[in-house]
Structure formats: C-alpha cells, structure tokens
Amino acid sequence: MTPTSLKITLDGSAGSPAPYEQLRAQISGRARSGRLPAGFKLPTVRGLAQELGLAANTVAKAYRALEADGVIETRGRNGTFVAAPGDTSAREAAAAAQSYAERVHRLGLSLEAATATAADALRARYTA
C-alpha cells in the first residue's frame, strides 16, 4: 500500500489565484473528496513552504484558512492533520485512531497485529 502524499502543484501564470488560495483549494478539495483521509498528517509550514518554493507566511495563511473552515486541525507539537468530517465525536475518534496507528507503528507491530489488537479491544468494550 502506497502512503498518501500531498502532491501540490501551483500555477504561477498571470490570472491564476494567489498561491495561498491555490494551496488552500487543493488541500480542501482533496480532504473533502477523501483523497486525503482524516488524520493524514500535513507537512510543517516551513517544510511545505520549502518544498513549494513559497514564503512560510503564505503556507501559514493557507493553513489558517483551512483550520477556520474545519478542514484541518493543529494538535500542538504533534502537527497539523486533516480533520474528520462531521461531528466532534467523529473527529475525536479519528484523532484517537491516528494516535493508535502512530504508537503501534513505533512499537513495530504489523498491520495485521495492530488491527487484531484494536478489534479485540473494541469487542471487549462493546460486549461488556
């Protein structure tokens, strides 16, 4: 399985929207279509700015607009992530799932072992 990537392309021709608007629109469109799944970790402002050849303030402006729209969420030092659509409980569940995925990856568990562990915990909780 290939990891999801951002693959942002900017059009610098005359008459095209400002770079921050192009960035905002591409991330928003991909998040809303599901091409960027909830919990997907976005690059840092500086990292994405360097990758795209933009000023950090331009990327920060796009991230602020996306956060105001509820498309992304910043989790302090943990980074910036695509927000779960819908209500707060769905967002919290997506954040918990992302944290679990990061933790089991650091622990070296396979996808199958991590999935089985989560399924066992859920079965125990829902049948208790």
The outline comes out as elongated
The largest pleated sheet is described as:
3 strands, antiparallel
Gyration radius over CA: 17 Å
Tally of helical runs: 5
Please tell me the CATH architecture of the largest domain by its name.
Orthogonal Bundle
Structural domain tally? 2
End-to-end gap: 35 Å
What ranges have pLDDT less than 50 throughout 5 or more consecutive residues? none
Structural class: mainly alpha
Helix content: 55-70%
Task: Please give the order of strands in the largest beta sheet.
Answer: 1-3-2
The number of E-state strands comes to 3
Helix-strand pattern, N to C?
Answer: HEHHEEHH
User: What is the averaged pLDDT score?
Assistant: 88
Fourth-tier CATH superfamily name of the largest domain: Winged helix-like DNA-binding domain superfamily/Winged helix DNA-binding domain
Percent of sequence in beta strands: 5-15%
Q: What CATH first level of the largest domain would be assigned?
A: Mainly Alpha
CATH fold-level name of the largest domain = Arc Repressor Mutant, subunit A
Write structural notes for this entry.
There is one protein chain. The protein has helices at 19-33, 45-52, 56-68, 88-107, 111-127; strands at 41-42, 72-74, 80-82. With 128 residues, it is mainly α. It folds into 2 domains: 9-83, Winged helix-like DNA-binding domain superfamily/Winged helix DNA-binding domain (Arc Repressor Mutant, subunit A, Orthogonal Bundle); 85-128. Strands 1-3-2 form a 3-stranded antiparallel β-sheet. Strand 2 and strand 3 (80-82) form a beta hairpin. The chain is elongated, with a radius of gyration of 17 Å. The N and C termini lie far apart (35 Å). The mean pLDDT is 88.
